[in-house]
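Inputs:
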Amino acid sequence: MTDVSQDSRRSARAEASRRAFYRFRQSRLSMVGATMVAVVLFFTLFGNLLAPYPEHVRGGLNTAERFQAPSLAHPFGTNELGQDVLSLVMAGTPVSVAAGFAVVLIGTVLGVVVGALAGFNGGWIDDVLMRFSDLMLTIPSLILAMAVAAALGPGFVNMIIAIALSWWPGYARLVRGEVLQAREEVYVAAARAIGASPARVLFRHILPNIVSPVIVKMSLDMGFAILTVAALGFIGIGVRPPTPEWGTLLSIARNYMPDFWWTAVFPGLAMFLAVFGFNLLGDGLRDVLDPRARR
Amino acid sequence: MLRFILRRILLILPVLIGMTIIMFVIARVLPGDPVGLAAGPNATRAEIEALAREFGLDQPLWVQYWTYLSGLVQGDFGTSLFSRRPVATDLAAYLPATLELVFSALLLAIVVGIPAGLMAAVWRNKWPDYLSNILSVAAISMPRFFLGLLLQLCFAMWLMWLPLGGRFPIIFDPPPGITGFYTIDSILAGDWESFWTAMRYLALPAIAMSLSPLATILRMMRASTIEVMHQDYVTTARALGLSPRLIVFKYVLRNAISASLTVIGLYFGWLLGGTVLVETVFDWPGIGLYATSAIVSQDFMPVVSVALVIGVLFVTANIAIDVLYGLINPKVRYQ
Amino acid sequence: MSALLDIRDLHLSMHSFEGAAKVLAGVSLSVEKRQIWGLVGETGCGKSLTGLSVSRLVRTPPAEYTGGQILLDGTDVLGLSEPQMRALRGRRVGMIFQDPTTNLNPAFRIGTQLIDVALAAARHDPSILGLDARAGRRARKAAARKLAINMLTEVGIPAAESRLDDYPHQFSGGMRQRVLIAMALIGRPGLLIADEPTTALDVSVQAQILTLLKQMVAAHDMGVVLITHNLGVVAQTCTHVAVMYAGTIVEKGPIAEVLADPAHPYTQALLRAIPDRSVARGQLQGLAGSVPNLIHPPPGCRFAPRCALARPSCLEGPPPLHTRAAGHEVACPVVEELQHA
């Protein structure tokens, strides 16, 4: 009997995911987004290797070729240090993507822990955790992240910590809501009735059913995390040069506008396209994974 | 209704206290040497200690907190370590600039976003809908500071139609301060030339800030309009011969807007917190720029105060939204 | 003179992911003034779609009319443009729906909603407001307001003038349905389609609403199509009844005839499923089997797969109509044969 129900559940899940995949492929924009994300991930893995002037990525300069306009040798031109902008933009991809992903991941883990604890236990634990999350949501996140990053000092890890600190409350609220809802479902009541332990109920019956909304939020947040990373770089409290970070590149380049516009426009464009890709993908995922949001 | 508002306002107090505690704890737990930074690179140990004593930073955290809180009740936001000016004075000078920018951006976003979202829903799954969908995802994906730079590049540097940054030409006096909003003040003073100047300075930063909320409001409005159009009362209205125009612009619009209101409230806080970036790009003398300079020098009081002011404004805006929501939805009005 | 409503051999397909479902297959129904037709059948049999089709409120696509006519005062509404159709809605044909809670817009005063319907109807027929075509905007609004008050009074809402400024949530369910009836009738339509108007109401209120409907028919010389799954409601209210099964009308006729002499096996089964005092405890009968798949409907009679009397010939083609008595028609040749044998 267990076998039958396991089997039918598994096939129902397989069927659901086949349908979701079909719907996803039907949406042209989602496919465009997926392709863009694939390109971004490609440069995340190989950007450093493929950069035409790897020495520039490591901080080497070439003062003889400062501010060259885009040409065949330098499709995106060169900057104030004579570095190839294309190489810097390519090598900047892993920095932004890794930082963005780390932020989202840390935020998700923290948020899921807090949200699941609050939603599953209820009572005063719920009250305390949720009031705290609401407070954190009230504090302007960018300013909080900036303040923390400034206090921790510049650096890749510090920046991630600073942003993740303001990132989790959104997930906590989402997960709590979903857990509260799932707790009322019949299958959870049934699991309790046959004597499943609270931990088993939480991990086997509730959490697997809230994976979809969390994944949707993660994919939608990926773009915003990249934007926030770049914003800190732009303000001047993120990663420091020579690490090629898009926001930092932009903040230096704005001093050389309008004459040497390419130093600013190309890093900005890369940033925009990466975020655009993640947002299109996230939209598509939401449409197929979150039936409530579908129209 | 009045009791509802009063209760909500009273509820701000615990939020306020909670926020200050969190900010204080974060500031203290983190490493960093604000006093050393403020005293300068050549300061002796004794000088640094004297500075710390002067600002009460040698006291235990809870004493510092209590001092801050009791000052706050009297409208004293503390003193900047760097400029040694009261934070309250600075806030009074910078806050109107930020509010003017945020309100203009939000106004622009609402005025364009709501009709555009409504139209996208009416033309659902036709090309205007697809176009607006792509454009709004693009707008949300656009970093505000990059958009700001592009706008500067095009309209200030190449075309030279609009000023590059700042809020008003330094060589002229701004309009007499009544509201602190240059646009409104110049209208009040009947000074149309100043109004035009203020608008020219406001245009680019406001556009750079409004794009993302505009897109979000558009998408929200589209979704809620589509939902409302599936309601039974819309079928009834159609069945009884009301024209599509009347149905959409009167009956659907009011119901759909109320759903979008919540988003507008959330965005108000987001805009206030995000003004940092646009203010940096456009040298807009607001609290974002103020907070940035304080953060870089780890000047603690201004940062806490700016966060506090933004938090309070955010909560207040959401109360206002709730009240507005009640006005639009007669059902929730009396609850 | 032509009938108020004459549906002739209406065919409607619904396109979906899995194929085209033939949800209406040859529906014919003729309604005259002062007749109240009960359209009964189980969920999904197409009775609501038939009602919505009269006002052309079925979205096309996914729906597609594949044959037949719907004559409203002699005009085929299936051939009309959307603006032409709009001129008929609310003025020639009024509609009320099941749930009075969701059919009134919660964000507007009921007066506003009534007045807008009156003004829309008056655009095509200014005499509704008792004004001539050149009357100004303000005069029209005032007249529409007066009409709304009269209408509300007529449907039995006390202190109508003061209630005009109330919102829907300030009314009880029964009162809301009265408001909706007032709204449906404010344009003086000759035909009213009432789609399950009492299903969402308390039993005690149901009777009041049905009585009100009957009064309205008498007062305004209307015809009504009352769509319901409740034969009790039909017996209590209607002058005629049409029984639908899987997109076809299996039996129709004057109420007394059909109830006294139900001929079609499906009608008989429906009547057997109503509990009444003559049935002993535990003897209530259901109907075996389920509604056929309309994407691949059974050939011939759609009820045949569940019918105790079915023979091979039932599956050969659509069953012809037989007249049992004046106006009483049955789509089942087998019953006729058995009775005459």
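The two ends of chain B are 8 Å apart (CA to CA). Flag for discussion at group meeting.
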